[in-house]
TrEMBL record:
Its EC number is 2.5.1.78. One of its GO terms (biological process) is riboflavin biosynthetic process. Catalyzes the formation of 6,7-dimethyl-8-ribityllumazine by condensation of 5-amino-6-(D-ribitylamino)uracil with 3,4-dihydroxy-2-butanone 4-phosphate. This is the penultimate step in the biosynthesis of riboflavin. GO terms for cellular component: mitochondrial intermembrane space; riboflavin synthase complex. InterPro entries: LS (IPR034964), LS/RS (IPR002180), LS/RS_sf (IPR036467). Keywords: Riboflavin biosynthesis, Transferase. It is an enzyme of class 2 (transferase). It comes from Imshaugia aleurites. Pathway: Cofactor biosynthesis; riboflavin biosynthesis; riboflavin from 2-hydroxy-3-oxobutyl phosphate and 5-amino-6-(D-ribitylamino)uracil: step 1/2. It catalyses: (2S)-2-hydroxy-3-oxobutyl phosphate + 5-amino-6-(D-ribitylamino)uracil = 6,7-dimethyl-8-(1-D-ribityl)lumazine + phosphate + 2 H2O + H(+). Belongs to the DMRL synthase family. One of its GO terms (molecular function) is 6,7-dimethyl-8-ribityllumazine synthase activity. This is 6,7-dimethyl-8-ribityllumazine synthase.
């Protein structure tokens, strides 16, 4: 009998998305959530945060990874209020932990007042850049992709590249699964789970 848990059952995954081109973004986020849930990631372990535009994604991802939001059961005011300044309380050592199992040691060894801040297993950055008449598209696409690559290598946490760079709205709608086509968000959810699991396995020195 197959397990109901799924590979993502012990992962904590963040989705950070831009607000430009909201309709397409909403479809991409919905597809991503759907595939995370289908892979066994628990609803309460999917944290979603938005930023104004794609250019803000690398900064938000870096902040989120440096200081994961306090878990809702321990945080009556919700995750956003937990995004305080991060360097004060987080260290790179925390981020090298493969995910929630390593965190439990941190939680249980701390005082009972310590907020529960489980590190993310992976983070998915979602934005939609539509080419316009000026050079903004090129600059934002370049800066955002390099920023996202830098942050995942600097912090050692998988950052899934959910940035669509399209020539027009129609192309964006097609890739978001609107008009009945395949939603790329589903691939991003699967990639986050695969990398989150592999990161845990690799951290244990195993490569099977
Ligand atoms: N952000 C996006 O996520 N997608 C876009 O298509 C997009 N186009 C932009 C076009 C122009 C001319 C400007 C000025 C900004 C655009 N942004 C877009 C917003 C950008 O990512 C960022 O939020 C702002 O530049 C503020 O830092």
């Amino acid at each position: 009998m197959s397990s109901l848990k799924g590979p993502g059952s012990n992962l904590r995954i963040a989705i950070v998305h831009a607000r430009w081109n909201t309709e397409i973004i909403s479809a991409l986020v919905a597809g991503t959530r759907k595939s995370l849930l289908a892979s066994g990631v628990k609803e309460e372990n999917i944290i979603v945060q938005d930023v104004p535009g794609s250019y803000e994604l690398p900064f938000a991802v870096q902040r989120f990874l440096m200081n994961p939001p306090i878990e809702s059961s321990n945080n009556p005011t919700g995750p956003i209020s937990a995004v305080t300044d991060l360097l004060s309380s987080a260290s790179l050592t925390d981020l090298t932990a493969p995910g929630p199992p390593a965190f439990s040691a941190q939680a249980s060894s701390g005082s009972s007042k310590a907020p529960l801040k489980t590190p993310f297993s992976a983070i998915i950055a979602i934005g939609v850049l539509i080419k316009g008449e000026t050079m903004h598209f090129e600059y934002i696409a370049d800066a955002t992709s390099h920023g996202l690559m830098k942050v995942q290598l600097d912090l050692g946490v998988p950052v899934v590249f959910g940035l669509l760079t399209v020539l027009n709205e129609e192309q964006g709608r097609a890739r978001a699964g609107m008009d009945g086509k395949h939603c790329h968000g589903e691939d991003w959810g699967k990639a986050a789970v695969e990398l989150g699991v592999k990161r845990q396995v690799w951290a244990e020195g195993s490569f099977v």
